[in-house]
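Backbone-to-sequence.
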């Protein structure tokens, strides 16, 4: 019975936590028209989510593109198809790798920081103090962070895509013997689309990044606001924020891909 009780308590905790995230997301969405009042906090959050996280994101994206080009090129060389490396690298980075890498890095850096900040405020009763002063914590704390990460995640993804493709070009030239001109022509052909303002592979990837940014921010804020038990509770909130964010990145990435590329 103790085992069943523990399992039931764990399931109940997960359901309550998921419900809190959804309710916080809906409440924050209703507060969106009030974002101009929090412009200063929004800009500060954009700086933290974009400028500070940009260097590490670009480094990871560049080496990811290099690894992708190298591993793919080795196999393609066995079939005499190394000329397709530019196409494969460009499509992989724009469709999936760029948004995924950016989101994971932001979850580990920005999302964890959000959970730690709000968790510390919660366990030290600062959130309660805001409520006593009739200040909505979702309006004052959550809205600027969610809006900032939702905007900055696709913006950083653009740079991740470019650096990943550029990293692949270095591998293509120096390890696979493919000229830069041929590589970039392949990239341009792969991403060209006359039917849309942006190529489909690009705007689908940016839409994914927007979804990822919103999910990371709302999950991290929710974990921080539910933190209890002092320093240990803050650590658990950070751990849960990163873990749940990565899980939702993978799940939502699959859902978005299946919606846009169904029947293709």
């Amino acid at each position: 019975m103790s085992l069943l009780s523990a399992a039931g308590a764990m399931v109940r905790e997960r359901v309550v936590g998921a419900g809190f995230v959804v309710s916080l997301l809906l409440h924050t969405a209703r507060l969106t028209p009030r974002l101009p009042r929090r412009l200063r906090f929004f800009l500060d959050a954009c700086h933290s989510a974009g400028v500070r996280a940009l260097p590490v994101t670009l480094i990871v994206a560049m080496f990811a593109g290099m690894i992708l080009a190298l591993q793919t090129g080795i196999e393609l060389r066995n079939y005499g198809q190394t000329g397709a490396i530019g196409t494969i690298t460009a499509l992989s980075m724009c469709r999936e790798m760029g948004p995924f890498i950016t989101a994971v890095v932001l979850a580990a850096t920005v999302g964890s920081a959000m959970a730690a900040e709000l968790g510390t405020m919660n366990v030290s009763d600062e959130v309660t103090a805001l409520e006593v002063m009739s200040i909505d914590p979702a309006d004052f704390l959550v809205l600027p962070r969610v809006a900032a990460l939702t905007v900055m995640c696709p913006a950083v993804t653009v740079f991740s895509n470019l650096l990943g493709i550029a990293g692949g070009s270095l591998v293509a030239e120096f390890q696979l013997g493919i000229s830069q001109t041929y590589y970039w022509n392949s990239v341009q052909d792969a991403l060209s689309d006359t039917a849309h303002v942006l190529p489909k592979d690009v705007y689908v990837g940016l839409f994914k990044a927007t979804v990822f940014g919103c999910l990371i921010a709302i999950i991290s804020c929710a974990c921080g606001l539910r933190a209890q038990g002092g320093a240990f509770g803050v650590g658990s909130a950070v751990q849960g924020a990163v873990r749940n964010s990565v899980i939702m990145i993978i799940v939502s990435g699959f859902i978005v891909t299946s919606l846009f590329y169904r029947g293709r």
